[in-house]
Design brief:
Helix content is about 25%, strand content about 15%.
Length: about 350
């Protein structure tokens, strides 16, 4: 594998979208407590799914409040993903994009369809990993007046020096896109098939960055990037929003993003605005530092930013399902045991 191999980073797109949101927040375009319906009216008057007792038909009731931008950033909106047993089929039937399949539509199309679906719970009640960051990607488009790919390129990628990060890599770079694999029970480790794979309620493919209409800019999972590019993004965060002498975010915004936002909503889990946070709700169970922040991606990629040790760990593979493989844990242990001071 060459050092400049390109990877489907999937949910490692979410922190980049969260940075884009916070850049616009700093410019006074909105407040984090604003209802998303102020900018995306299709989310006005949300409803919550109710499961009838004894296997009766489900129905929906008005939510206790509207979804805020903060809810979307910290995954407390009541939205979910297509793999959810209660709402996944409804999402699929409504043609809501996951970001992990070829899709004939834009993020605006998908978000409008998502807004017609009931919520899993009332906003703010609990944490549920969701398509909320795709909604934030659409918010960036509406507020900035730019398509999300253009905002990323001009406001983040070019200043940071991320020259190999795209939703859809250009033809001349496709030979650097890493091959995706999966560990399938009947075959073991094998090259990812040339058709979508269905796992329970969820269907996904590996072809979406290179085939299909290429119109969807999924803020929650659509990017392709390299280890070097993502390390540059992490370095900007580690440097409190500074890169090459320019400031993308204020130090206070980085502090807010990397401060636990769940409180009692998630008593066992630390999560900020776009990042998981270690050691703030429970003792560390592996080598690391309290306050380090991180996330990962569907095709087996991950990163950790440790401000205390001034260290970044990037792990890149292309594997799903990953079975019992725990290589990223070994990489993390090797990185921390190498500290020698």
């Amino acid at each position: 594998m060459p050092a400049d191999a390109m990877f489907r980073i999937c949910s490692m797109t979410k922190p980049i979208t969260s940075v884009a949101v916070m850049m616009l927040y700093e410019e006074g375009k909105f407040q984090l407590g604003d209802p998303i319906s102020k900018y995306l009216p299709e989310f006005k008057n949300p409803k919550v799914l109710v499961k009838a007792a004894n296997g009766g038909s489900t129905y929906s009731i008005p939510a206790t409040r509207e979804i805020t931008i903060r809810d979307l950033l910290r995954h407390t909106s009541g939205l979910t993903y297509n793999w959810n047993a209660d709402l996944g089929k409804m999402y699929d039937d409504a043609n809501v994009a996951t970001g992990l399949l070829e899709y004939d539509g834009t993020i605006a199309d998908s978000v409008k369809r998502l807004a017609t679906q009931p919520l899993l719970f009332n906003p703010g009640d609990r944490w549920e990993y969701s398509l909320g960051v795709d909604v934030l990607g659409r918010l960036v488009e509406v507020v900035s007046g730019m398509p999300l790919d253009q905002f990323f390129r001009t406001r983040i990628f070019e200043p940071v020096g991320m020259k190999d990060s795209y939703f859809y890599p250009p033809q001349e770079k496709l030979n650097r896109l890493a091959v995706a694999y999966g560990i399938f029970d009947e075959k073991g480790l094998t090259r990812f098939p040339d058709k979508p794979v269905t796992d329970g309620f969820f269907t996904y493919d590996a072809s979406y960055p290179i085939a299909g209409p290429k119109k969807l800019f999924s803020g929650g999972g659509g990017l392709v990037s390299t280890a070097e590019d993502y390390a540059r993004f992490c370095q900007m965060m580690l440097d409190n929003g500074m890169v090459n002498g320019k400031r993308l975010l204020s130090r206070k915004s980085v502090e807010l993003m990397t401060h636990d936002q769940l409180g009692k909503i998630g008593p066992d889990q630390g999560f900020g605005l776009g990042f998981g946070i270690d050691g703030v709700k429970a003792p560390l169970d592996e080598l690391g530092s309290s306050g380090s922040y991180n996330w990962g991606g569907f095709f087996y990629t991950s990163f950790t930013i440790d401000p205390k040790e001034q260290m970044i760990v990037i792990f890149m593979a292309q594997l799903h399902p990953a079975g019992d493989v725990k290589i990223e844990n070994l990489v993390n242990t090797l990185a921390y045991e190498a500290i020698n001071d």
